Amino acid sequence: LFDELVPLPRGTSYNAYLVRGTEKTALFDTVDPAMQSVLEDHLKGVERIDYIVAHHAEQDHSGCLPWVMGRYPEAEVLATKKCRELLKDELDIDENRVRVVKDGETLDLGGRTVEFLAMPWVHWPETMVSWIPEDRMLFSCDFFGAHMSFSDIMASKQSGVEAEAKRYYAGIMMPFAKSIARHLDRLASFPIEMILPSHGPVHDQPAAVLDAYREWVAGSVKNLAVVAYVSMHGSTRVLAEHLVEALRKRGVDCRLFDLAGADIGELAMALVDAATIVLATPTVLTGAHPTVAGAAFLINALKPRARNLGLMVSYGWSASKMEDQLKNMLSGLKAEWLAPVMVRSRPNLDDLTKVAALADAIAKGRVEAVS
Asked: What contacts 116, CB < 8 A, 6 or more positions away?
């Protein structure tokens, strides 16, 4: 459960890379503190490290930095200015051992040149990547990552890498699509033959993940509706299932999520492509069910490119706060709201007619009143 939030059905990996030149040795990133013993084991026999490249200050990559600095007192940490600040704040490391490197600066290891490329907001403000032109290798940290464990380090030997890369993009990178698009444009001129991320296998055929990222950041949504619901006594489940059936009859692809037990990673993946998002909720004390409210908060944070938003509500005595509450929670999305379907108690035939009208509006791709 990554960050105590996202289920990882295929696990994950924490990747650090030892890069040797004829004169100097560099360690690219460390690992999560929970994996320190593994890192210690893998560094046995490495007598000297001259540089520790900190691409990103988040603890799953920097958490073992204090131990590595203690093990290799001669090592100089290389990071962006912002990264140095964050490492000081989070790990209380000695700033005197951190040298700030600028965008485009190079480091000669002897036969291997490391060029540092600033990539802010992928997905933190301090992030950078490293390029080794002699080997045509891009060390990308979280960029192009995938949460999965593996027996063979090369992505070409693994099945399902693109799906896990999409899950990773959806849950972590999607809010920064505009920044990522600019960085992809910059990398287009690099003759990359291998991408080495900090999570997941190495992309030894990098065109696949590069092309996938270009598609995802473009924000070209598909004929897909994501319908997510919680049902306390069955009413909203009826609404959600009826809407999905009506949409499929109208040629609209659908993904239905029962939020009470849904994998939010799967939900996030579906949001990458969805033209329409519909939330269906029962009323809890005149407001949305807390699980639906949590999903709305997450959707707003992920900033998918959906064009239409819909709401279906089942209530008993009052739902006066529901519409405004959820609209405010999703105010970060640049999408049109379809008129809500408000149903008192269990849906009847008239209510299901309203759901059919909502399906018509979604299928036509336009806002249409549902009353």
From this structure: 53, 78, 101, 102, 103, 104, 105, 106, 107, 128, 129, 130
